[in-house]
Amino acid sequence: MPQHAGAQSTPGEYQVKAAFLFHFAQLVEWPAGALNGGDASIRLCIFDDEPQRQELQSTIEGKTIGTRVLHVLVINEVQEIPGCNAIFLSRDQARRQTSILRSIAGTGILTVGETSNFLSEGGMIRFHVDEGKIRFDINLDAAESSHLQISSRLLLLSTSVIRGHTTERGR
Q: pLDDT, tens digit, for every residue of 18-56?
């Protein structure tokens, strides 16, 4: 039975996405006090029912960003999100995406997702595949409303940057 190419993941797709997540954490500046946890870490959260959880964790857990360590936290409930600095919502999380994005809007948590409506629902960075390559778009208004500063380098690497009702093409 044929499958739609967009619905399946290619080998290594989530290793590449994990590497992007690591670089996003390097190129985003959180608001003052947001990263002042006792363990001096950046906490990227994923849900326990995320099918690609192991691949994401094994690729980036424990990597350092300056003086901070990136930790991948597996969460079970939406109530645990306030302990996160970033959250990844794959297309498998589509059923809860809208309520999550609404509940954490403006809180200083970087949101990264995959669904086609992720940015229009208030997400900040959306992965998509274009000609077999993983690309990303940025909703700059959503990031700025959460007091996150996205590096100009990251903006230049994006396929597009959405600001207000306009879309600027990156690369």
A: 999 999 999 999 887 777 655 678 999 999 988 888 888
88 token code pair:
């990844």
**Which residues 6+ apart lie within 8 Å of 168 measured at CB?**
160, 161, 162
From CA 42, how far away is CA 86, in angstroms rounded?
Answer: 8
The three-class DSSP label of residue 94 is: helix
What are the residues whose beta carbons fall under 8 Å from the beta carbon of 8, sequence distance 6 or more?
A: none
What is the reported pTM? 0.88
From 3.40.50.2300, 3.30.420.40, 3.30.590.20, 3.40.50.1100, which CATH number describes the 11-169 domain? 3.40.50.2300
Q: Beta partners for 150?
A: 28
SS3 assignment, position 101: helix
Q: Is 127 helix (H, G, I), strand (E, B) or coil?
A: strand
For CA atoms 78, 85, 141, 137, give the dihedral sign: negative
